[in-house]
Amino acid sequence: MDELIRKPALEVIALLRSGEVSPLDLLDVLERRIGEVDDKVNALPTLCFERARTHAKALMGKPMDERGLLCGLPVPIKDLTDVSGVRSTQGSPIFAAKVPERSDVLVEHLERAGAVVYAKSNTPEFGAGANTFNEVFGATLNPWNPARSAAGSSGGAAVALATGMAWVAHGSDSGGSLRNPASFCSVVGLRPSPGRVAETRLAKLDGNLGIEGPMARSVVDCALLLDAMSGEEPADPVSLPRYETSFLDAARTGWTPKRVAVSRDLGITPVDAEVAEIVLAAARRLEEAGMIVEEAHPDLTEAHECFQTLRALSFAVSKKPLLEAHRDKLKPEIIWNIEKGLALTADDIVRAEHQRAAMFRRTLAFFETYDLLLCPATIVASYPVEQRYVSECAGHTFSNYVEWLAIAYAITNVMCPAISIPAGFTREDLPVGIQIVAAPRAEGRLLAGARLLESILELAERVPMDPRPST
Questions:
Q1: Rounded to a whole number, what is the largest CA-CA distance in the chain?
Q2: How many CB atoms neighbour CB 376 within 10 A?
Q3: Is the pTM above the cut of 0.85?
Q4: What is the set of domains in the chain, with CATH numbers?
Q5: Catalytic residue numbers?
């Protein structure tokens, strides 16, 4: 079991294709591993192994060349996303008993690609707040120190990867929800370009703040899952056709950036001094390898007002009926965000859209000079799990529960693909991630650059791990 758990996803798929292991073998291994460690971290609160085995057997009845890209690889789905016949709570007491009849488009797409869904990963209520806790399942704990947060909102997915309860995992991201937990847990989280991964659209058909994406323990495994996730779906009117080449092939091209920008703070946020130094040291490794590395960033001055206005609008559009019917069951941060959205004026929305367009144009111009942009994925290392969010950093007190995520949501604003990979560890031996950003729709370059830096830093082998004692 231990040997299989530690293998990369690509190697596991090779074993599936050769017939050396079956999807049922992998489900057995995962069920045992979850039984050993999940009570220490609470990453996968909902399991569906009976459904998974039924699906695996059906897949095994097909010829090998018809089993899809993933060929029966088990994949956990974040609990914001419906899986047919499986409890799908969105981390909310409102939906604590919900069992949908139909899966989200994303899940249907993954299953056609050979994924076998065996679990739902924990998330904050409606994905709000970068600390994975909710009133349905409780908190997910960071395996590097279970007294600390796993971040969020894809915290359950990141912890499952870090502890060997998953080879790859699904997540989603608006203000850094794929990138923050990857940083806190020493795994890889990729926010693709909007439209790259199709999903079921329930409210705002053209929404592009929140997107779906892959997580893994290495860049190439993350690229593999993005290949399985990506592609057009008629049910998602903004979904994109498949990339011209596979993302896995793109990651393996050996492409090397010529000029790279690095920023400790993107000019918009405080950053913990130790986190900034770890990220800058990681960037200097590229300079040692012969690339030009300069301290620079695009002008993202309007990031706070723009993102928080558009985020509030999104909450108002999607959650107003819940506020009216279930106010007593919503956590205070969500109530605040919905009411902020309902109070917006047309002038507020017009200003935010103009700000976003201006930042986007400046970012496009920036990438005419630089191949990649590097910066911290989060502004702090993992904080105490009982703390709802980061309220202060480097002497600055944040005005709300979202503001501390600016280094991630600034990139969300400008619609660039971004990835968090491990950059190093603090003096307390807590992980720190480096965020790598590429021009819009340039996932190929992003993955190749991330794989290059990953190979230089040599940190991927530190996971999977057994959860440590709390300190």
A1: 62
A2: 29
A3: yes
A4: 2-462 (3.90.1300.10)
A5: 78, 153, 177
